[in-house]
Write a structure and sequence with these properties.
This protein is an alpha+beta fold and about 190 residues long. The protein has helices at about 1-25, 165-170, and strands spanning about 40-45, 55, 60-65, 70-80, 90-95, 100, 110-120, 125-130, 160, 180. The strands form three sheets. Strands 2-8-7-4-5 form a five-stranded mixed sheet, with no helix packed on it. The longest helix is centred in the first third of the chain and has 24 residues, at about 1-25.
């Protein structure tokens, strides 16, 4: 009985040894040299060496990190979904130290995708999506209306209050209406 167990053990150990040597010889999966690095979207005012990615910005720039020294990256920022002739930016970024940044940019509010590729790199393009969302400028009224606190349209000497029933109706609901008249060359209103 011991003679039949020993050959089985020996066979099992031989199989395990062969499997172990196969695992030692198997190649490991690693990124191709030169295909590392990342680009982050930064709000203007964020330090260029800050590794934070800001997916919602107003005025912004692109910051490149962890590339091999001396690499060059091509990049494009386009609307999402892509609109032919829509707002976009693109450029080439030389990275003598493996890091760098673009100029400051401002695009209309919307969703954008930044795509970059290492010049001479072996990998595919890399990308990330971000949103441009600038707060309304307090100096410009929303939707072309009057600025807050003015109570209505600006008034100058060419505006005249509405009189009669229309004026009374507007006054009853808390509003004042002003009509603009053109002055003729002779000084009379039309």
């Amino acid at each position: 009985m011991t003679t039949s167990v020993r050959p089985r053990r020996a066979a099992a150990l031989a199989v395990l040894a062969a499997a172990g040597s196969t695992l030692l010889v198997a190649p490991t999966a690693v990124a191709a040299p030169g295909d590392n690095g990342d680009i982050k979207v930064h709000s203007v005012g964020t330090a260029s060496d800050d590794p934070v990615n800001e997916p919602k910005v107003c005025n912004f720039y692109l910051a490149a990190f962890n590339f091999d020294p001396g690499q060059t990256v091509t990049w494009t920022v386009e609307t999402q979904p892509k609109v032919p002739g829509g707002p976009s930016e693109s450029g080439v970024l030389a990275l003598p130290t493996g890091a760098g940044k673009t100029k400051n940019m401002k695009l209309p509010d919307g969703t954008y995708k930044v795509t970059w590729k290492i010049v001479g790199g072996l990998g595919d393009d890399k990308h990330k999506v971000f949103k441009v969302d600038c707060p309304d400028d307090p100096a410009s009224p929303p939707n072309g209306g009057p600025p807050a606190g003015g109570g209505g349209l600006a008034r100058d000497d060419a505006f005249t209050p509405v009189a009669g029933a229309a004026g009374v109706g507007l006054a009853a609901i808390g509003g004042v209406a002003w009509l603009r008249f053109r002055r003729r060359a002779d000084g009379t209103a039309s």
